[in-house]
């Protein structure tokens, strides 16, 4: 099967390339310089050239705080870009697998969000991602939205790598303890998407619509940091654990409001045989990979 991947240099894009490398599929991967999805003309041209069987959209504007002042840019990629991909895919009669975010919710829930729950983004980033979901639903006949959260990997910039770096630079750190979510390893998300591509190739169908994919155990950013330091010390990624202080969101103001609670319910994907990410195990793998990269 010919898979067209956007956003190849992001965490998910790089992990997806790793996942496909051992498969029988042909992958056509593009970064934003090769395929700017905000340009309908570029999208049309690439689709005509590649003639893909399925599209995986890992391209996104993800600068959550900058989005508050760069709304136009966020919507150009996260909304208009998704619409362009949907239109091109629809013209070829092929499906789109699109990655979205927990930021489409307001964070006021007290139990894990289901795909069918009411959306209410609190900032520009979340609003732009929700607009992309809606644009996809309006244009595409067959599409699958995967909302995910708290993505980390051995690639790019993420919370895990930031914490490891700060542990070597500082003796004490303060981390927000009243925001809850599920860390997600990009490598596991990539494998989940590839499994869905396989299902589509075999059956010509999928459970179209919106699903959630994330890590299996909820935690806070403070809890996540504590786990990162413990595993970092065990794997030799750091030689000391800094003093870690729990603080409230109010004590760490940011331009964009974050959901206080964005744990996602992954049951609908589990019914398709796609299990949630075991992020504790994945964190060990990432530590090993980072150590291997450092040698």
UniProtKB/TrEMBL annotation:
Presence of the UniProt keyword NADP in the record: yes
Keyword Methyltransferase: no
Molecular function as annotated in GO: dTDP-4-dehydrorhamnose reductase activity
InterPro entries named in the record: dTDP_dehydrorham_reduct, NAD(P)-bd_dom_sf, RmlD-like-bd
Gene Ontology cellular component terms for the protein in this record: cytosol
Alphabetical GO biological process terms: dTDP-rhamnose biosynthetic process; O antigen biosynthetic process
Cofactor note: Binds 1 Mg(2+) ion per monomer.
Pathway assigned in UniProt: Carbohydrate biosynthesis; dTDP-L-rhamnose biosynthesis
Record keywords, A-Z: NADP, Oxidoreductase
UniProt catalytic activity: dTDP-beta-L-rhamnose + NADP(+) = dTDP-4-dehydro-beta-L-rhamnose + NADPH + H(+)
EC number: 1.1.1.133
A matching Pfam family: RmlD_sub_bind
Gene3D superfamilies cross-referenced by the UniProt entry: NAD(P)-binding Rossmann-like Domain, UDP-galactose 4-epimerase, domain 1
Needed co-factor(s): Mg(2+)
Domain (RmlD-like substrate binding) ranges: 1-290
Job description of the protein: Catalyzes the reduction of dTDP-6-deoxy-L-lyxo-4-hexulose to yield dTDP-L-rhamnose.
Similarity comment: Belongs to the dTDP-4-dehydrorhamnose reductase family.
NCBIfam families: rmlD
Identification of the protein by name: dTDP-4-dehydrorhamnose reductase
The species this protein was found in: Marinomonas aquimarina
Lineage: Bacteria, Pseudomonadati, Pseudomonadota, Gammaproteobacteria, Oceanospirillales
């Amino acid at each position: 099967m010919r898979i067209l991947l956007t956003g190849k240099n992001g965490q998910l894009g790089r992990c997806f390339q790793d996942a496909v490398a051992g498969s029988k599929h042909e992958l056509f991967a593009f970064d934003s310089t090769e395929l700017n999805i905000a340009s309908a003309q570029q999208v049309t041209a690439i689709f005509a050239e590649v003639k893909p069987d399925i599209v995986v959209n890992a391209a996104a504007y993800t600068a959550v705080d900058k989005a508050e002042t760069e709304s136009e840019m966020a919507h150009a990629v996260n909304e208009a870009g998704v619409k362009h991909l949907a239109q091109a895919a629809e013209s070829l009669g092929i499906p789109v697998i699109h990655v979205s975010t927990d930021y489409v919710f307001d964070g006021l829930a007290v139990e894990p969000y289901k795909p069918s729950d009411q959306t209410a983004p609190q900032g520009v980033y979340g609003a732009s991602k929700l607009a992309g979901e809606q644009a996809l639903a309006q244009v595409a006949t067959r599409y699958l939205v995967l909302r995910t959260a708290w993505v980390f990997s051995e690639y790019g910039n993420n919370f895990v790598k930031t914490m490891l770096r700060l542990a070597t630079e500082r003796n004490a750190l303060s981390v927000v303890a009243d925001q809850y979510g599920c860390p997600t390893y990009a490598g596991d998300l990539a494998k989940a998407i590839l499994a869905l591509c396989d299902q589509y190739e075999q059956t010509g169908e999928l459970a179209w619509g919106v699903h959630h994919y994330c890590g299996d155990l909820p935690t806070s950013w403070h809890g996540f940091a504590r786990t990162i330091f413990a595993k970092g010390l065990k794997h030799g990624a750091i030689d000391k654990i800094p003093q870690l202080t729990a603080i409230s969101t109010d004590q760490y103001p940011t331009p964009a409001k974050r959901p206080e609670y964005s744990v996602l319910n992954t049951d609908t994907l589990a019914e398709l045989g796609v299990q949630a990410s075991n992020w504790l195990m994945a964190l060990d793998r990432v530590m090993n990979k980072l150590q291997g990269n450092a040698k």
